[in-house]
Amino acid sequence: MTGAANLTEPSNYGAAAAEQAARYVKERAGAAWRRPVAGIVLGSGLGGLADRIEDALRIPFSHVPGFPVVTVAGHAGQLLVGSLGGQPVVALAGRFHMYEGHEAALAAFPVRVLHALGAPVYLASNAAGGVRRTFSPGDLMVIADHLNLMFRNPLIGSAEPGDERFPDMSDPYDRGLRALLHAAGAAVQVPLQEGVYCGLLGPTYETPAEVRMLERLGVDAVGMSTVPEVIVARALGMRVAAVSCITNAAAGLSPTPLDHHEVMDAGRSVAPRFEALVTEFVRRLPAVSG
């Protein structure tokens, strides 16, 4: 954990640091390096997709310049370079959360690295509680929009080279990529929902009163990640898509207390469908050169 940043100084998790991390990854990959069609982040319980990546080079987060060690159960803490659906990808098995004590810029830093590695598309996944009452554990929701109730923004401070100072967030989750996700889901017979995700700081789960508030605000699913990453991806001009695995009914909508083991178990139960969806989605992405 770092102290409060000096807003007049460049971030320790900005463009220069991302380039350094990207150079390290490319050097480790060597002659096998190919520019990825997408950078993928795997949320809690969804890391099984890593086993589908072919010819994977696995780099522990602790080896990547600027990356701390992952502390959350269900996050392997590895960066993978390889192929998925016949296309080159870079995947992160795990992420950094602000509730671990990290600043917003660090929570979003891996996205800067994916961009520095040449990925034009950022695909996020997460485990989320269902606020929409028709959701059931195991549903997959394509994120169409979000609410940032973390009250943190990773772009605060001096603008980084290559960043849009005031990024447009009128369509943060690319409409074309959402359509591609739905087409991929239909092709592999994986039904998909679509809705609004709300990012809260955590690490506590929401109270019933908070869930009632979120429901009235139009939220469909709630979690503790993704939003800072998407903000940085949009500032960098990346196209963004995201999928939430609904692991449980949110507090007040479920008769049982919430538990992180339940979250991971639900993620594992939906894993085959999630993996088939993402593999088909990546297969349908346009190839890139370089």
How is this structure best described in words?
With 290 residues, this protein is α/β, with parallel strands linked by helices. The chain has a single domain (15-284), classed as 3-Layer(aba) Sandwich (Rossmann fold). 29% of the residues lie in helices and 23% in strands. A five-stranded mixed beta barrel has the order 5-8-7-6-9, surrounded by four helices. α2 (104-116) crosses α5 (227-235). The longest helix has 25 residues, at 260-284. Residues 1-10 have low confidence and may be disordered.
Q: Might you state the CATH topology name?
A: Rossmann fold
Strand content: 15-25%
Q: pLDDT average, as an integer?
A: 90
Number of domains as seen in the coordinates: 1
Number of distinct helices: 6
Helix content range:
25-40%
Order of SSEs, N→C? HEEEEHEEHEHEHEH
| Ends distance | 36 Å
Structure in a nutshell:
With 290 residues, the chain is an alpha/beta fold. It has six helices and nine strands, in the order αββββαββαβαβαβα. The protein has one domain (15-284): Rossmann fold (3-Layer(aba) Sandwich).
What are the defining features of this structure?
disordered N terminus; globular; 9 strands; Rossmann fold; alpha/beta; 290 residues; 29% helix
Topology of this protein?
Blueprint: H1 15-29, E1 38-42, E2 54-60, E3 78-84, E4 87-93, H2 104-116, E5 121-130, E6 140-148, H3 175-187, E7 193-199, H4 208-216, E8 221-223, H5 227-235, E9 239-249, H6 260-284
Parallel strand pairs: 1-4, 1-5, 5-9, 6-7, 7-8
Antiparallel strand pairs: 2-3, 3-4, 5-8, 6-9
Helix pairs in contact: 1-2, 2-5, 3-6
